[in-house]
Amino acid sequence: MQAAAQILIVDDQPDNLLILEDLLSELYTVHAANNGEQALERLARGERPDLLLLDVMMPGLDGFEVCRRIKSSQELADIPVLLLTSLESPDDEEYGLSIGAEDFIQKPYSPPVVLARVNNHLRLARASRQLRDRNDNLERLVAERTREILTQAEELVRSKQAVIASQDATITALCSLTEVRDNETGGHIRRTQNYVRVLAQALVDHPRFRHELNDETIDLMFRSAPLHDVGKVAIPDAILLKSGKLTPEEWEIMRRHPTYGRDALAQAEAELGDQGSSFLRYAREIAHCHHEKWDGSGYPQGLRGDEIPISARLMAVADVYDALISRRPYKQPYTHQEAIALIQEGRGGHFDPDIVDVLIGLADTCRDIANRYRDDDGDEAI
After folding, report:
1. 189 and 353 in contact (C-beta within 8 Å)?
2. What CA–CA distance (Å, rounded) separates 190 from 247?
3. 325 within 8 A of 334, measured Cβ to Cβ
4. d(CA 298, CA 235)
5. pLDDT tens per residue across span 231-276
6. Coil, strand or helix: which one is 266?
7. Range with the poorest average pLDDT among 68-72, 211-215, 317-321, 331-335
8. Burial grade of 312 (CB within 10 A; 0-12, 13-18, 19 or more)
9. Beta-strand runs (E) in the chain
C-alpha cells in the first residue's frame, strides 16, 4: 500500500527537491512542482496526491497561501499537507495549523523524521479515508433501508385500509339486514356505538380495564357495537314486530337472539380465518353477552361480574340507556335524568358499577350524543 502512495513535493529550490526525492522515491511515487502556482494547476487538472509536502517560503504564492486555497476547496481539503520550513516562530506554526496544515517538517531535514512523519500522515489519511468510505456506505445503506421501510409502511397502511374497508362493509351489510327486520332505528345503532366509545375511552387508565382497552380495541368495539342485536334476524316477525307485550312463550324465543347472533358471527369468524378473528371477536362478545347482568341474573348464560366480557358490559349500559330515552310502540321515552337515575339504581345489580360511575360522569356527553343522532320522528332534544 505504501509503495503505491503518491506524494507531491512543492519547492522552488532544486536542491531541496532532490534531497526529498532521493529520500522518498524508494518507498513512494514522487512528483515535483517548482512553485505554488504550478502545484495548484496540477491539482486543478485532477491530480490527487495522497500527501503534499509544501515549502513555506516561495516567490509568488507562498506555502501558507497554497495551503489555505487547498483547504478551502471541498474537493481538495482532505489531502494532507505537511509544511516545509526553516521558520521557528511559534506564530508561524500556529498560523499554518490554523489554515489546515496537518504538520510541519523543519529544515535542514532529518531523514528519519521526514520518513516517520510522511509514513504517519499517510497512514492517518488512509484510515480517515476508509472511515469516510464506511460512513458513506453506511449512510447509503441507511437511506436504502429507510426507503424500503417507508415503502413497506405505505403498503401496510394500504393493506390495513383495505382490511378496515372490508370489515366496515361486512358490518354495514349485517346492520342493514338487522335494521330491515327490527323496529329499532339506525339512530339507536349510531347512538349506542358512540356511547360505547366514550365510556371505553374514559376507562383506558382504570386498573380493571386497562389490560384490554386501547385505541385499537376501542375502535373495534365502536365498529362492532352495531351488531349487538344481529341475532334478531332469526326471530319470527310475529314476535319481533309485535307491538304489545310478549307472552312467556314468545319471550323465551326472543331471549334466544343473543345465541343466534353469537352463532352467526362465530361461523363468519371460521370462514374468515385468523384475519377476521380479532375484528369479529368483539362483535361476537357483544351480540352474545350484552343481556348478561353483573349479579348473574341475565341471559343467555347467567354470567356474573368479570365473567362478562368488557365489551358486553359496556354495551349493556349503552343499550339500556338508549332504550330508556327512546320512544317505542309500547312505551313513552324517559327523560335523560330519569334514565340516568334508573341505571344508577342498577349499579352492582344489572350493571358493572365502575361503568355506571363513568356513565354518570359523562352524562352530559351521552345526552349530547343522543341529541346529535336522535331519530327523525319529531322527538325534541332530551
Report:
1. no
2. 30
3. yes
4. 19
5. 888 888 888 878 778 899 999 999 999 999 899 888 877 776 654 4
6. helix
7. 331-335
8. buried
9. 6-10, 29-33, 51-55, 81-85, 103-106
The shares of helix, strand and coil residues in the chain, as percent rounded to the nearest 5, are 65, 5, 30
Residue position matching grid coordinates 349530547: 368
Output 354-358 pairs: Cβ under 8 A, ≥24 positions apart. Answer: 354/203, 354/206, 354/208, 354/209, 355/199, 355/203, 355/313, 355/314, 355/317, 356/317, 358/199, 358/202, 358/203
* 6: its cell numbers: 503518491
Instruction: Give tens-digit pLDDT for 293-307.
Output: 999 999 999 999 999
> Residue 1: is its pLDDT beyond 70?
no
Whole-number pLDDT of residue 2: 45
Is the C-alpha dihedral spanning 23, 26, 29, 34 positive or negative?
positive
Four-residue CA torsion sign, 186, 191, 194, 200:
negative
Asked whether the beta carbons of 354 and 364 are under 8 A apart, the reply is no
CB 333 within 8 A of CB 375: no
Query: d(Cα 356, Cα 362) in Å, to the nearest integer?
Result: 10
Say how far apart CA 192 and CA 325 lie, in whole Å: 12
What is the arrangement of strands in the sheet containing 6-10, beginning at the earlier edge strand? 29-33, 6-10, 51-55, 81-85, 103-106
Identify the pLDDT of residue 69: 95
For residue range 116-146, what is the model confidence (pLDDT) as tens digits? 999 999 999 888 888 888 878 877 877 776 6
| Cell numbers describing residue 156 | 401496510
What is the pLDDT at residue 153? Answer: 60
Rounded to the nearest integer, the mean pLDDT of the chain is 86
Write the DSSP symbol of residue 207.
Answer: T
